[in-house]
Design a protein that fits this description.
Layout (H helix, E strand, L loop, with lengths): L1 E6 L15 E14 L6 E10 L6 E11 L11 E16 L2 E18 L4 E20 L4 E24 L2 E17 L12 E18 L2 E16 L6 E15 L2
Antiparallel strand pairs: 1-2, 2-3, 3-4, 4-5, 5-6, 6-7, 7-8, 8-9, 9-10, 10-11, 11-12
Length: about 260
């Protein structure tokens, strides 16, 4: 799997978007499916991940995960169906090409789950747990503390819904909704908030859209959507989250099946 993203900030002065992304991000992933473990229903997949973050610094990362999928042992009935429940021990190495001492060894695990619910709803819940071992002391608590280790937990929780409003031949109109924590971040050492003196931060959002789908061929669907996203865009510290506002958004794309 490969993904290349190019980021361009239209506000060159950065007057309103000091954290805007610039540059090109490259992500490569290789998967190998080992199959079921013995006589169990647990599937094991190895994943090797590489990313060049490009847009904000010269940092790069390399990671290995052993992904155990327990979906067949989870909730599956008329009301809830678990389509994915992965527990993945991992090792990640993050480094800066221009600074040999500024690296981060990480040991941890991920939990990724996806559940289908009635009436077009679905729910996604992910955890990313990392023990960090830094190549040099890092600054925490607004410069009042320096540590070469840290423990972090990041959580993503999303609720999705799709409701068909109109269908006629090859044209369909859907109302889509998604929202939740994107993400909630907790750190053992204080590094969040305006003064970097908080242990947590979060971004909470809601995104309703109207989407038009056109079945161009039996294998290709073209779509376009418009809506608005409500989020605490600027202030995300756990004890000071504010500046909630709507941001209009539009997007378009296509989906191909083989």
């Amino acid at each position: 799997q490969y993904r290349i993203r190019n980021w361009n900030d239209v506000d060159r002065s950065n007057k309103y978007s000091s954290s805007a992304k610039e540059g090109t991000e490259t992500r490569l992933r290789y998967f190998y499916n080992h199959g079921l473990l013995g006589d169990s229903k647990v599937n094991l997949t190895s994943r090797v991940h590489y990313r060049d973050n490009g847009h904000d610094d010269d940092s790069q990362e390399l990671e290995y995960q052993a992904r155990f999928n327990f979906a067949e042992y989870m909730f599956n009935n008329d009301f809830i169906k678990t389509t994915n429940f992965v527990v993945a021990p991992k090792y990640k190495y993050v480094w800066e090409a221009s600074n040999d001492d500024n690296y981060d060894n990480r040991l941890g695990f991920d939990i990724a789950s996806f559940h289908e619910l009635p009436y077009g709803f679905s729910f996604e819940l992910n955890f990313y747990v990392d023990q960090h071992f830094y190549g040099k002391d890092q600054e925490f608590d607004g410069g009042r503390k320096f540590k070469d280790k840290n423990f972090t937990v990041d959580m993503e929780a999303y609720l999705y819904n799709t409701t068909n409003l109109y269908t006629n031949g090859n044209v369909g109109i859907d109302f889509n909704f998604e929202g939740g924590y994107d993400a909630y971040n907790w750190s053992q050492e204080k590094k969040f908030g305006t003064d970097k003196d908080e242990n947590a931060k979060y971004s909470l959002y809601a995104l309703p859209t109207i989407q038009v789908n056109y079945q161009a061929t039996p294998n290709v669907v073209v779509y376009a959507a418009a809506g608005a996203e409500y989020r605490n865009w600027d202030i995300t510290g756990n004890g000071e989250a504010s500046h909630w506002r709507w941001q209009p958004t539009v997007f378009a794309g296509f989906k191909t099946t083989f």
